[in-house]
Amino acid sequence: MTTTNHTGVSHTVFRLLGIPGLEDQHMWISIPFFISYVIALLGNSLLIFIILTKRSLHEPMYLFLCMLAGADIVLSACTVPQALAIFWFHAGEISLDCCITQVFFYSSTFISESGILLVMAFDRYIAICYPLRYGTILTHALIGRMSITIFLRSYGTIFPIIFLLKRLTFCQNNIIPHTFCEHIGLAKYACDDIQVNIWYGLFVIVSTVVLDVLLIFISYVLILHAVFHIPSQDARHKALNTCGSHVCIIILFYGPGIFTSLIQRFGRHIPPHIHILLANVCILVPPMLNPIIYGIKTKQIRDQVVEVLFTKQK
Fold this sequence. Notes:
- By secondary structure, the protein is mainly alpha-helical.
- The chain is 74% helix and 5% strand.
- The chain has eleven helices and five strands.
- The strands form two sheets. The protein has a three-stranded mixed β-sheet with strand order 4-3-5.
- α2 (60-77) runs antiparallel to α10 (272-297), α4 (96-129) runs antiparallel to α6 and α4 (96-129) runs parallel beside α8 (195-227).
């Protein structure tokens, strides 16, 4: 389906191919996608339910974790069902408006998660460096303001991308070799100059994700400096242990993304389906493993999960 304007033909419907080169394996590939999606939905929903219903968990660290679980659900829900529809039903057709909507929610949720990881690092910094003032610094009012700032930043920086994409004329190929829509991945099919899209996309990444990574790194430098000045070895071990879950989640969230970026820049001879699979790993793995990591490493959450799942059955 196309529309005609003064520049020629502009596609209004695109077709997502899924994972090009592995079309005959789509049914098998869908199995880990589906399992990861179900685990992410159930695990994060359970985490949110436990944190919201148990007053003992209404502390800053758990409230931030609740926000992260909510973002994980949104991130999975706005991309994985589309991939499964392609794998199972060959339903790859998507309108331009739906494609841009997916770009908006996927990108803004990704930036929100990065912001949440930053405030979680700040939470650990206050808890370890200023333990006696923890409750007076991280009040519910401050948590509310930080939450609003995170989501305003993510939606505010991504919102202009809607107009940057809507202004383009898509007169080239309307076949997208991917499982979901991406900003530059969609813009490159336009006949117009997309330099503004490229530079604005770079600005968004640097001013949000890169800045967050830098501030998280600084937070942990300060945390380690404080920890290694603790005289007691047991207290030092306990302080480091409280950061373990957060560090694991940081590595899971940023690690695949950084690796994928390096592959895209320098892996010219790597097959396209590897790029697509790595991009999907960034979406599938963190939402699936985040609740598992916190459930295993955090005693308070582990005890509440056991109580919710098994005590009521007696």
